[in-house]
Amino acid sequence: MSDRSTLTFISWNVNGIRAVEKKEALKWIDEENVDFLGLQEIKAEADQIPDSIFERDYKFQSINSSSKKGQSGVALYTDIKGEASCCAHVDILDEGRINEYHFGDIAYFNVYFPNGQRDDERLVYKMAFYDRFLTHINALRAEGKSIVVCGDVNTAHHPIDLARPKANEKTSGFLPMEREWQDKLLASGFIDTFRHIHGDVEDRYSWWSYRAGARGNNVGWRIDYFYVSDDLKDKIVDADILDHIMGSDHCPVKLVLEV
């Protein structure tokens, strides 16, 4: 653990864990005290993940690969004692989109939410996934669980969360219906931890297209989030976007919680 009184969480869409390993882009984990590492879009089966991604030997790891090889997939690494759970009723197409892990009175989720840009059918699926997931975490809250959700949400919530909001008003990832789901999430008693810490700071993004020098010009989107249930509000120590870390079209995001 990083400290007796805090837990550090990292979330990163690596866009292919084998590609990231070739760039040695996860080696920085060995220099940090990361208690929960949640990776999305690993695009690999468990036996395809190189042992050399970092040297740290986490006591628990959970790899949830997609039934469609080479797509999606999430991975969780932690030393915190707990129990993995199953979200098959949310990820109904078995696309390897969720790690669920319960420790103490907290239910933690590492999620790669669907992208709706392919076609209208996929957008409908994305919205249904959103709703199933919110129903699930609200049910856990009703049972007395505190909730931590991290991952690639694939939607920028407000105009401040992307560089070119006007140009993307009709693009999946910034559609009113997608953003309204985030409104619903917060109204259900969840906190966007980055905004909680940083307020309305501008020009902070977590994803940039590989095209047209987007990252160099900081033409990006903030689509990677840490949400927590509001009973954890006073436990939020820090939340940030680690935009100096390279290796993917996304950068990692971070949460530090008091425990």
Draw up the topology in text.
Layout: E1 6-13, H1 17-22, E2 36-40, E3 60-64, E4 74-78, E5 83-85, E6 98-103, E7 106-112, H2 120-142, E8 146-152, H3 176-187, E9 190-192, H4 193-198, E10 207-208, E11 220-221, E12 224-229, E13 236-241, E14 253-258
Parallel strand pairs: 1-2, 7-8
Antiparallel strand pairs: 1-14, 2-4, 3-4, 5-6, 6-7, 8-12, 9-12, 10-11, 13-14
Descriptive account of the structure:
Helices cover 18% and strands 27% of the residues. By secondary structure, it is of the alpha+beta class. The chain has a single domain, classed as 4-Layer Sandwich (Deoxyribonuclease I, Chain A), CATH 3.60.10. The strands form 3 sheets. It has a 6-stranded mixed beta sheet with strand order 3-4-2-1-14-13. It is globular and about 45 Å long. The protein starts with 5 loop residues before the first strand and ends with a strand. The mean pLDDT is 96.
> What global shape is seen?
globular
**Mean of the pLDDT scores?**
96
| Terminal residue distance | 11 Å
Major sheet summary line:
6 strands, mixed
| Helix/strand class | alpha+beta
Tell me what portion of residues adopts beta-strand conformation.
Answer: 25-35%
Number of domains: 1
Count of extended strands:
14
The level of helicity is: 10-25%
Poorly predicted runs of 5 or more residues: none
Radius of gyration: 17 Å
Write the CATH homologous superfamily.
Endonuclease/exonuclease/phosphatase
The count of helical stretches stands at 4
CATH architecture: 4-Layer Sandwich
Strand order, biggest sheet? 3-4-2-1-14-13
- Write down the CATH topology: Deoxyribonuclease I, Chain A
Q: What series of H and E elements makes up the topology?
A: EHEEEEEEHEHEHEEEEE
The CATH class, by name, is Alpha Beta
